[in-house]
Amino acid sequence: SSPPKQVRELYAQGIIALFPYLRDPYAKLGYEHYYDPQSGQGYLSWKIKNIQRNSAPSETRRCVPQSFSGGPSAQREASSSTDVILTEEQYREAVSLMKHTSEEATVKVKMRETFQYRRKMIHDPSRCADVLTEFPRYLDIKGLIELDFACLFGEKTAAKFLERWPTTFMQKVIQQSKGLNSSQELQDLIHCAESAVDTESDEDGWGSGLASILLLLHLIPPSAQGRKRPGKMSASQAEKHIVIFKKAGTNIQEHLDSIKESTQPYLLAVGTKKSSIHGYYIILDKKAIPCKSVSGLAAFDELFKAHFVFGAAYNK
Q: What ranges does the record list as Polar residues composition bias (predicted)?
């Protein structure tokens, strides 16, 4: 069973009472991102549903349609789409054209036109793992994840994280992190997050944007839920489920071939050092999708969106 709405709202109020920096200054109550009493949505509702789902028999496929209203795998109405309704023959022609044309603009037009077909494919457990085979241009044209996410949620929502994280939440996360029990790893992340700009430096640490995201692993430690071995996962272990660093010159295909099991999307950062990344890739189904930006924060934003675009559940 799950706690009633009144209890969930009390939990949300308690979080911002204990951690005032986590209050959303743009929201009416300040805690709607944890639990919105009007819609019944928020982080607490998602977490409860996720725990309930994980307690059921595990699924072998990475994308399974969900009946509830939240999460990457949930079926939802697109925020925007094209007015073009393609026949099956027109759809096949569009897919064939995208595979062979060298014009990125044409690919993006056809990706919009085939968006609804792609959503049906993603929510079909027998076909969802074939999306990157059917639409291989994800692997060589940057920005297609952003395009699909905007079709799903709208341009305004798609831009919200990169607009609000640096100005509204980043400093609050850093300040809250300073109140935690100190460790060298935590202090290094705080130092990187407090760097004035997210650019190359002489130090071997992540850029400020990505470092501030990784601080959340210390503020909200991973639980033991879903782990095969007892005990909680450490923050450093959890980091490897978000981003892995490889030296420039690494053979990406060799990295893909070395993957032993099908994991959910994570970032592969390639550069001379963590503070000097030449490119980010989203690794999904043993394939590398190039990120649009070399900014760590923007790459994380794209990683988050990839979960919804490909219907991939969050890592457990």
A: 66-82
Per-domain residue ranges of the chain: 5-54
pLDDT at position 60 is: 38
The predicted structure's pLDDT at residue 209 = 95
Closest by alpha carbon to 111, among 162, 153, 72, 145? Answer: 145
Question: Can you give the pLDDT at residue 61?
Answer: 40
Positions of the chain with pLDDT under 70:
1, 52-70, 80-84, 196-203, 223-231, 262-263, 315-316
User: What are the structure tokens assigned to 143, written together?
Assistant: 């920005």
Supply the pLDDT for residue 262: 63
Mean pLDDT for all residues in the chain:
85
**232-242 b/e with 16+ CB inside 10 Å = b?**
ebebeebbebb
Dihedral class, residue 188 (left if φ above 0, else alpha if ψ from -120 to 50, else beta): alpha
Structure confidence at residue 267 (pLDDT): 97
Question: What is the SS3 string spanning the chain?
Answer: CCCCHHHHHHHHHHHHHHCHHHCCCCCCCCCCCCCCCCCCCCHHHHHHHHHHHHCCCCCCCCCCCECCCCCCCECCCCCCCCCCCCCHHHHHHHHHHHHHCCCHHHHHHHHHHCHHHHHHHHCCCCCHHHHHHHCHHHHCCCCHHHHHHHHHHCHHHHHHHHHHHHHHHHHHHHHHHCCCCCCHHHHHHHHHHCCCCCCCCCCCCCCHHHHHHHCHHHHCCCCCCCCCCCCCCCHHHHHCCCEEEEECCCCHHHHHHHCCCCCCCEEEEEEEECCEEEEEEEEECCEEEECCCCCHHHHHHHHHHHHHHCCCCCCC
Token pair belonging to 12: 């949300």
User: Cα–Cα distance between 21 and 168 in angstroms, integer?
Assistant: 10
C-alpha span between 44 and 7 (Å, rounded): 11
Lookup result for tokens 């550069």: 271
